[in-house]
Amino acid sequence: KKSTGSSKTQESAMKKKKKQKKTKGDPKTGQEEESHTCCGCRFPLLFALLQLALGISVTVLGFLMAGISSSLLVRDTPYWAGIIVCVVSLVGFVMLCISYQPDEKTCVQFTVKLMYFLLSALGLLACVLAVAFAAHHYLQMTKFTCDTVLESCQCKLDTEDPLGRTFVYQDAADCGSLTSMLNLYLLLQMVLNLIAALVCLSACFVMWKHRYQVFYVGVRFYPLTPTEGQQQKV
Questions:
Q1: What's the pTM?
Q2: Is the pLDDT confidence value at 232 over 80?
């Protein structure tokens, strides 16, 4: 009877230990599970939503600018930057559908996270280029002197220079409305692309920090703890 009573007490003690492990868990794994969440949401959700909204806005605005005049260059209508940011957001949504595991234990999770990081870096570069092109064009527009000639708007930086470059905007009957619309669209493109670049940069920073834990790459050392069998023997 004593032996059966002692075995029952041991079994009950083992069950209690297992329950405590399930409820409490390893603090390191708990920190890892909390590290990929933000405001109760999984990591890429907020970034992906912002990237999708900004990417659609930049793309629509770029096509609207292309509809103003057929002679506008591709660099002046940065719908390509918006499309790249939209692709980045879609990859972020795909990453949400993959079950999270610490330290990228699955090849699919590692591949998707790498694609999201690289595409975010590409989106950052594209948005910075779009801001640079829009700012350059906006500065030129502020110095233009425009005249309407045969349903086209011809603008010059220096009207007194006969050899100066002439910028021609086709399919524009009114130069005043064209310049005002272009100035507004260029300002919006600068603001939207700048915000999109900051979002992509933040996404890259958070992923880098989460993967390498504050820019440090090293081996984890766990304390040597005796096993349960050794504890019972002692």
A1: 0.70
A2: no
